[in-house]
Every structure is written in C-alpha cells, then in structure tokens.
Amino acid sequence: MKQEVKIIEVKGAGGVSRIHVGEKLSRIDSHLPAGVASVIVTDERVKELYAGDFPPHCPIITMGTGEGIKNLSTVEMILRELM
Predict the structure, then answer these.
(1) Which of 33, 42, 56, 63 gives 46 a disulfide partner, CB atoms 3.0 to 4.6 angstroms apart?
(2) Rg, the chain, Cα only
(3) pLDDT one-digit tens code per residue, 30-53
(4) pTM above threshold 0.85
C-alpha cells in the first residue's frame, strides 16, 4: 500500500515553505528547487541513521540531540553556519 504524501504550506514574510509529510528522505532531491542552494539542518541521531539518503550536494549542519539543545545558542550556531 502506497503512503500518501501530505504537503503543508507555511506562509511567511519571505515566501512559502512546504513541509512534505510521509515522503521518503531518499526522494528529497525531487522536492528541492532547481538552482537554489539547500542546506540540511539535522540532529546527530538523524544524521547517523539517514546521512546516506541526504543529497551529496547539500551541506549539513548538525546539532546535538534532546530538548536541551532547543535554545537560542543552537539557533545562533545554525545562523553562524549559514553565514
């Protein structure tokens, strides 16, 4: 039985982001906009399990795991990496 992919659109001041729920990570390339740089932000555990499915051309920003990393210091680290 094929699982249906649900797309949730989040509208912000800078445009629209689409969240694909139920899609296989190995198909992520088919959803990335052509000609636009994409970055993967993930935690250590997800990277450990699924890094082989990440597109090879996307840089990866890795953060720790758990609730303790959900803070402004982590946001600052991600922003510094993006810059």
Answers:
(1) 42
(2) 14
(3) 888 888 888 999 999 999 999 999
(4) no
